[in-house]
Amino acid sequence: MYFFALASPALVLLTLFLLAPAVLTFVIAFTGLDYRFNWNFVGFENFIRIIRDPLTVTILTNTAIFVSGTLAFNVGMGLFLALLSTSIRETTGTFLRAAWLLPRIMPSVVFAFSMTWFFSPLETGTLNQILSLLQAGQVAFTKDYPWPFLFLLNGFVGCSLGMVVFSSAIKSIPQDIINAARADGASGTTIAIKIIIPLIRWQIAFITAYQTLSLLTSFEYILLTLDGGPGYYTTEVWVLHAYHRAFSEYQLAALYGYASALISFLAGIGIVASLIYWRVFRLKELIAEPKIEVY
Amino acid sequence: MAGLVVGGVAGWSIKPSETTGVTVTKTVTQTVTQQVERTVTRTETVTQTQPTVATVTLSAWTQGPERESVYRQENLVLAARKLSSMNSILGAGVKVEVTGEFSTAPWGDYRRKLQLAFESKQAPDIVLSAHIDIAVYSDNGWIISLDDMIKEYWDWVYNDVIESLWPAVSYKGKIWGIPQDTEARPVYFRKDHLIKLGWSEDEIASLPKRVEQGRFTFEDMLNTAAEAVKKNIVQPGYGIWHRPNAGPDWPIPYLAYGGSLYDEKENKLVAEMKVWEKVFDWFERASMKNMGVISDKLIGLDFNRDVHPTVVAGKTTFWFGGTWHKGQWVSSFGLAEDDFWRYFGFMLYPAGEKGLKPVTLSQPMCYMISSNSKYVRQAFLVITMATDPYLNSLHANKSAHLAILNSQLNHSEYKKDRFNAEAGYLVAYSKYQPMHPGWGTYNKVLFDVIKGIEAGQFNAQRAANVLEEELKKQLGDAIIIR
Amino acid sequence: MGLGKILRYVVVAALCIIVLSPIGSIVWLSLSSDRNRLSTELTLNYYEFIQSGWLFQDPVYQKYYPNIYIITLNTLFLAGSVTVLFVIISSMTGYVLSRYKIPARGTILGFFLVLHGFPTTTLIISLYFILKSMNLLNSLWGVVLARLTVELPLGVWVMKGFYDSVPWDVEMASLVDGAGRLKTWWHVILPAVKPGIAAISIFAFTAGWSEFIFVYTFILDRTTWTLSNLIRGLMGELGTVSMNLIAALAMFYTLPILVFFIFTQKYLLKVALGGVKG
Question: How far apart are CA B241 and CA B127, in angstroms?
Answer without folding.
Answer: 32
